[in-house]
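Recall that a protein's primary structure is simply its ordered list of amino acids. Everything else, from secondary elements to tertiary packing, is in principle encoded there. The following example makes that idea concrete.
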Amino acid sequence: MRPPLVLAVVLAGCAAAPATVDLKALLERREMCDHFRGEIPDPPDEVRMREVIAQIDAFCPGSDAQLAQMKRRYRDDPGVTKRLAQFEERIER
């Protein structure tokens, strides 16, 4: 009876991996997005502004929708819910 139990545990672990990868990717992406949103130069520096805008354009688009999706997916997980709550819900225009 042990082999089926081991197989079930392995398969359960495999089923959970993509969601974990998606969540990790969102967390990293949104953290980078927020970082660069805070890097707008003051006083204005044209070169730095282009660099910052390029990074914002790389990390931020679509993150509002992905954040909302992850909040729905993990609504029953208090740890993940708390982590996702750290991000503003709407940063995209």
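The CA atoms of residues 77 and 88 lie 19 Å apart. Residues 2-37 form the longest helix (36 residues).
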